[in-house]
Write a structure and sequence with these properties.
Layout (H helix, E strand, L loop, with lengths): L2 E2 L3 E4 L6 H8 L2 H4 L11 H9 L7 E6 L6 E11 L2 E8 L8 H16 L4 E7 L3 H9 L3 E11 L4 E11 L17 H4 L2
Antiparallel strand pairs: 1-2, 2-3, 3-4, 4-5, 6-8, 7-8
Helix pairs in contact: 1-3
């Protein structure tokens, strides 16, 4: 499964992506916002992740479409859980604040609505990750009011996670402004 947006290419990870994946996600500021990623995150972890069969739901790497070779900037996935399907995503630190999480997750939410015809999606974020709350709200997710304990493997702790839900075809917030100049020099030099 592949998806394209004006600035991004979303595709499954290939074994050749392991060095770029390890470099992009191998930052405690990134993996500390994820539930299951280990710390430290190295090449062997990337190779193991890429060799794993993630099942029928999309599990995609996010690449910025540049004038040269695409750059790995994150990942986005849908994952089965007991009460439905959960959306998850991460963005490498040099690319924070550029709208990539919203753009990539919007493409996957569209796949969930139109292609997979899922009745609803779940998502969550650790209580200290306010940026993820803004992304989810832009995508039409609403907080359920539930805060539950969730293990953060990288932090080696149990953290408070705020739960969100989104019914199929929920009205998402419209984008304000454009991030057309996303490839600022500091981000693209990373």
């Amino acid at each position: 499964m592949f998806a394209r947006t004006p600035r991004l290419l979303l595709r499954p990870g290939w074994k050749e992506d392991a060095p770029a994946l390890a470099s992009a996600i191998g930052d405690l500021a990134v993996v500390g916002r994820l539930a299951s990623a280990p710390w430290p995150y190295g090449l062997a972890d990337a190779e193991a992740f890429l060799a794993t069969d993630h099942g029928p739901l999309p599990n995609l790497l996010i690449f910025a479409r540049t004038h040269g070779a695409p750059r790995l900037v994150g990942g986005v996935a849908l994952e089965s859980r007991d009460d439905g399907v959960e959306l998850g995503y991460w963005i490498a630190r040099p690319y924070w604040g550029l709208g990539f999480a919203t753009e990539a997750a919007r493409a996957v939410v569209d796949l969930a609505d139109r292609g997979l015809r899922l009745p609803k999606l779940h998502a969550g974020h650790f209580a200290d990750n306010h940026s993820s709350a803004r992304v989810l709200e832009k995508l039409g997710f609403a907080p359920t009011g539930a805060v539950r304990p969730r293990i953060c493997r990288a932090r080696g702790s149990v953290e408070s996670s705020i739960d969100y839900v989104r019914p199929a075809f929920a009205r998402a917030q419209t984008a304000i402004g454009s991030k057309a100049g996303y490839d600022r020099e500091d981000a693209m030099a990373a």
